[in-house]
Amino acid sequence: AQSVTQPDIHITVSEGASLELRCNYSYGATPYLFWYVQSPGQGLQLLLKYFSGDTLVQGIKGFEAEFKRSQSSFNLRKPSVHWSDAAEYFCAVGRFLTSGTYKYIFGTGTRLKVLA
Amino acid sequence: GAVVSQHPSWVICKSGTSVKIECRSLDFQATTMFWYRQFPKQSLMLMATSNEGSKATYEQGVEKDKFLINHASLTLSTLTVTSAHPEDSSFYICSAPRRLAGGESEQFFGPGTRLTVL
Fold it and tell me: Which of A52, A94, B8, B45 sits a CA distance of 20 to 30 A from A30?
């Protein structure tokens, strides 16, 4: 069965510290992988995605993620966290549809708290 | 960037009544939209795929008679929770894919609608 696991429900880091959010997936075919951020009152915003090619993907807001097929992981990283990064982060696997879009399976999310 | 709106942003209703939630793509057309349900501190669960001009496709376990979806135009999909009960209380989110230059598609999410059924 297809699934996405985010082992950490909550993470707290100090501003300026590095961050890594974990994501593991179970998917039978080549996965299309995404990281989204959800802030209160706003829709989910795409941080980055991996389809193929370079396994280290750069995204917006200074985030990056590394696809490791052998570990079925797609962890999100940021070298220096800002207070504005406090939000809920979702990892997702996308199944490509014939309509040209993706059907997502989301992880349970990781809530990031940033200490001043 | 592309914007998807939802209305209302929150709604409180009495048990047994029906509630309609709108999802609009404001600056692009979407033949397909998606409806999700998010329980507190949990993931987004895909409920159904809304198809413009045809019937919605529901995920396994989602009652189609309970959650009526109408995709009447290329910019509007509606989700109607019929005969709502307290267990239907949740956060409902829609998304719409937009084709980008180069043929890729990116999904844009609405801000969500919080439904509370008393």
Answer: B45
